[in-house]
Amino acid sequence: MKRVPENELMNEPQQVKVYSEADFSCSDNAFLQNLDEFLQSVNKSPVEGTRIVDLGCGPGNITHLLSKRWPLSLVRGIDGSEAMLDIAKSRQNNICLNNKSIKYDCIDISLLANNTNYIGLNADVVVSNSFLHHLHDPSCLWKAIRKLLVPGSFFFHRDLRRPSSTKEAIELQQKHLPNAPSLLIRDFLASLHASFTVYEVKEQLLLENFQNFKVREVEDRYLEIYGSV
Length: 229
Ligand SMILES: C[S@@+](CC[C@H](N)C(=O)[O-])C[C@H]1O[C@@H](n2cnc3c(N)ncnc32)[C@H](O)[C@@H]1O
Hints:
alpha/beta, 9 helices, binds S-adenosylmethionine
């Protein structure tokens, strides 16, 4: 099935509300577990002061889990949607009043990719979840992480992967989001149509000189990309 890009930023108020209220805890926890296993396999578990950047952090589900798992690290969530970040910040205030280790910045990834002003924003670990498929030009992610990562840094991304047909996309929706609000179902189907295949991601990595990053299929609808520079 041909890729159909969706809107990049998620900033429609109702869309943001429905997304932030949805329960993604299973896939969020799986994200953290696989990240943890990957970092342990390379002996690089975050320690005090480790800089972790969560790109396209949305309402901060993963950002918060990262800070909880590695409380001494410095976690930064970046998203281009103010509406998403407002929710992320209010959750941070509600959950953990004293937690100053998470910072949120509203930055569009295309600026990170193309603008040298952000050159000081280096990170030891860059992660993203469900983000690449939003980008009309996926090279923005690869150019941005080229700027963020320093030698020895790690990258871990989890995303949907594109099914072979609309029929398969609808079957995945009926299996995994059978009773969700209609807006969430709309966005899930749009995301499946906008996502990349493993083959396409491998091509992107070759083009951007990240040949050492690995890509793998996970379960019936995800892919993971991970590696170090
Ligand atoms: C599907 S959400 C994922 C949010 C979060 N990572 C999670 O796992 O719940 C995708 C996020 O990417 C953000 N986004 C999309 N395009 C972007 C861009 N060009 N620059 C920055 N953020 C972007 C959206 O605003 C949205 O918050």
